[in-house]
Automatic annotation (TrEMBL):
Obligatory cofactor(s): Mg(2+); Zn(2+)
Annotated SUPFAM superfamilies: Nudix (SSF55811)
Protein's name in the database: NAD(+) diphosphatase
Secretion signal, residue range per the UniProt entry: none
Length: 369
């Protein structure tokens, strides 16, 4: 088999597709987050949609995100929303955690502000508020794991949840300023955090010349499909479901380029030396706040001997001929653990909603001929 030219025009294949958690579902209108009039009008609009999370777990009904709006929640919860609107306009402590997600143009909406129109979407972390305060409807379900989200939600809904989970998790877990330890206040519709320190405390965050607020943390994680001639690398961690193998993944460390992080992580886990690195596609991963950066790592010639004794993170790693991978991609069936398997072969791969699967598919479709 002939290995195709590295960095061919096909390298744009994945970047042009929409991956799970990564659909551009909403126009975020980030510049309007600072406009309290817009935020108040959007939240109280009868055309708005509020989604709810409970300890970062999305609330759904009939395999779709459960949504409500200002007029549909009970009177007491509506008072809480009024209080949040007031605190958002004054940059004071809010009664709950709420984030403006953006406007949806998927369906027509009469809501309009200046030249911008669409369905306003907000996300609220329930915390101490009970489900009964937002609805009397039965059959609501709280999705607690990635597998449950993967099973129940469309890409459109999952992508909205990805944004909501990342922002609300950050708001929930960042109670104190990293500069001075004072309490923080969510501002600009839950998109920034302001330090509450007084003038007597010289906070390095609050007095910064460029930005005097804190922004959400996003942790970059690389995931690499390793290839060598007509084989691809399958790796397994002991915590994986039975039969599941995947690509090598790990956090990018401070001071590392993506390419060097790929080379380090692959060598630490498998002992393989990577020559060329191709950056292919990314995927938001809200568990809790990661951005997955998908790469292809091309092993240097005559350097294909696997060595697992460096990091000892992997339970197993094996070279698999691309024809077997092609069979998995073409004929594989997904089991209850979201692992794609074929009869007569003990190794499977994650399902097609993962970046690992898409990287393996890319290897089959665009690297080999």
């Amino acid at each position: 088999m002939i290995l195709k030219r590295l960095f061919s025009s096909s390298s744009s294949y994945l970047s042009q597709s929409t991956i799970y958690f990564g659909e551009n579902s909403l126009n975020r209108l980030s510049f309007l987050r600072k406009d309290p009039i817009f935020i108040a009008n959007a939240l109280t609009s009868p055309y708005s949609k509020i989604i709810f999370l409970n300890n970062s777990n999305p609330i759904v009904k009939d395999n779709q995100l459960y949504t409500s709006n200002y007029s549909q929640v009970d009177y007491k919860f509506r008072q809480v929303l009024d209080s949040w609107i007031d605190s958002n306009s004054k940059s004071s402590n809010p009664p709950l955690l709420c984030h403006f997600l953006g406007l949806s143009n998927k369906h027509y909406s009469p809501f309009k502000y200046k030249q911008y129109s669409g369905i306003p979407f907000f996300a609220i972390e329930l915390q101490d508020h009970k489900l009964s305060s937002i609805t009397s409807e039965p059959a609501l379900l709280e999705l607690q794991t990635r597998e449950e989200i993967n099973t129940h939600l469309s890409n459109h809904d999952a992508s909205i949840i990805s944004q909501a989970k990342m922002y609300l998790n950050w708001l929930q877990s960042t109670k104190h300023c990293q500069g001075c330890g004072s309490s923080t206040i969510p501002i600009h519709a839950g998109s920034e955090l302001l330090c509450s320190s007084s003038e007597q405390i010289k906070c390095p965050v609050k007095t910064a010349p460029v930005s005097n607020a804190s922004f959400p943390r996003l942790d970059p994680v690389l995931i690499t499909c390793v290839v060598h001639n007509d084989h691809v690398l399958f790796t397994r961690n002991s915590k994986f479901p039975k039969g599941m193998y995947t690509c090598i993944a790990g956090f990018i460390e401070p001071g590392e380029s993506i390419e060097n992080a790929v080379r380090r992580e692959v060598w630490e886990e498998s002992g393989l030396q990577i020559d060329k690195v191709e950056i292919v596609q990314s995927q938001p991963w809200p568990f809790p706040t990661n951005i997955m950066i998908g790469c292809i790592g091309y092993v240097a010639e005559n350097q294909n001997e696997i060595e697992l004794n460096h990091d000892e993170e992997l339970q197993d790693a094996q070279w698999v001929h691309f024809s077997k991978l092609r069979e998995l991609i073409t004929n594989g069936e997904e089991n209850k653990d979201l692992v794609v398997l074929i009869d007569g072969f003990s190794m499977g791969i994650p399902n097609d909603k993962t970046l690992a699967y898409q990287l393996y598919k890319y290897a089959v479709d665009h690297i080999y001929s």
